[in-house]
Amino acid sequence: MQESSLPGVPLLTRGKVRDMYDLGDQLLIVVSDRISAFDVVLPTAIPGKGKVLNQLSAYWFEQTQDLLPNHVLTTDVDDYPAELQVHAAQLTGRSMLVRRAERIDIECVARGYITGSGWAEYQKSGTVCGIRLPAGLIEAQQLPEPIFTPTTKAETGHDEPLTFEEVEALIGRPLAAQLRDATLAIYAAAAEQARERGIIIADTKMEFGIVRDNGSAAGQLILIDELLTPDSSRFWDTETYEPGSNPPSYDKQYVRDYLSATGWNKAPPAPSLPPEVVARTQEKYADALRRLTGRDVA
Q1: What superfamily in CATH does domain 103-237 come from?
Q2: How far is C-alpha 171 from the chain's CA centre?
Q3: What is residue 31's predicted lDDT score, i.e. its pLDDT?
């Protein structure tokens, strides 16, 4: 499904992957099969990808709810408002009804391994987001302890790294500390569980919001958006992981590598994906769900 179509239901936003509908104090999130790379939505969808993302997020929201509440009300279409029942076939498996929250415009990133943009920065300065790391680390090496490396939340273009001090200046010290502590606690719990199932979570990003029930001024911090999916995380297979290399991952890096090899200049429009790349990507997403949850795509 490239995009959802729910006549009579107000569309709030259509993001790179998710379509969000306005139900008053609740929102309906529908996860499409769209895929983006280098901040460009590709013309080719990955069949079933949206269901994997939705079902994996739902799984992790449930697994981590004791660490921090989240926005999920239900993923069971039978429990949705009556006006959505006519769209059940379109919504089943790829949607969730959630509480509306005030989004905190900071991407909260936890890194347990040195890779990606963090590795690139470390090679230049020995730091990641201003955090000084031990000398002599090699690519994909596990860090002595996970680190919190937040970024801006850009509506278009690339997110920019933030130091913790910059986050404090933006949202205040108490909330900044809450975001850091929650991000690292959730990452640690998920990484331990995933490792038992043969998957290393090298890094992941999370989003948070504030809900103010009954007009409360202080509000409650909750997890929102997606959680620990191949789109928001870097998953490695424990059997093929080797420090000093760039391990193959379960995320869309496979698609990025293909696109880079075509010579595409990373500006719209993006080229179409050939069937074999679509099939391999589809397989990677489904395998991540299967290994982490023990479930096939529903």
Answers
A1: ATP-grasp fold, B domain (3.30.470.20)
A2: 22
A3: 98
Sequence letter at residue 287: D
Matching residue, tokens 């909750």: 222
pLDDT at 252: 85
DSSP class per residue in 198-223: TEEEEEEEEEEEEE-GGG-SS-EEEE
Distance, in Å, from the CA atom of 229 to the CA atom of 55, rounded to the nearest integer, reads: 9
Residue 274 has phi, psi (to 5 degrees) of -70, 160
* Tokens representing residue 229 in the block: 């999916």
Q: Bridge partners of 10?
A: none
Q: Which long-range contacts (CB under 8 A, 24 or more apart) does 285-291 make?
A: 285/46, 285/48, 285/49, 285/52, 285/53, 285/230, 285/250, 286/48, 286/52, 287/250, 288/52, 288/56, 288/199, 288/230, 288/235, 288/250, 289/52, 289/55, 289/56, 291/197, 291/198, 291/199
For 204-236, the pLDDT digits (tens) are 999 999 998 766 667 999 999 999 999 999 999
Question: How many Cβ atoms are within 10 Å of 131's Cβ, its own excluded?
Answer: 17
Q: H or E segment at 21?
A: strand 18-22
- Of 154, 153, 149, whose CA–CA distance to 165 is shortest? 149
d(CA 46, CA 50): 8
The pTM (predicted TM-score) of the whole model is 0.94
Which single residue is written with the structure tokens 């990641």?
128
- The domain spans of the chain are 103-237
